[in-house]
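User: I'll paste a sequence; please echo it back and then give the predicted structure.

Assistant: Echoing your sequence first, then the prediction.
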Amino acid sequence: LDSNRKNQIRFPKDEKVSLGIGHSYLVLQIYSSQSLALSIEVNIVDTFQRRLTLYFSTSTKNISITQFHAKIPLKMDAKNTWMNFSVNLASFCKYCFKDSVYQSVDGITL
């Protein structure tokens, strides 16, 4: 991705369609360029069928949690290299949204 443009990749492309991935671990392989600001938005569904958002960003400095959204700092020290972004979505869901139980990934936006 070119950091000078507002590039965005969304899975699935149509926001009305759900990925429906039930695996609780998400692993993405990401190339970290020298000046790239990166954000990873993961839309999840809990067992109450609520749509929740985990937003990881290099621009976020502090954890911020509301009823349906959580902003989490993403620290990337390595530059110009491939990295693995790995997160246990069930644990993050439980930590950020206390009464929620993770069910599935609805969508991912980079």
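The longest helix spans residues 89-96. The longest strand covers residues 25-32.
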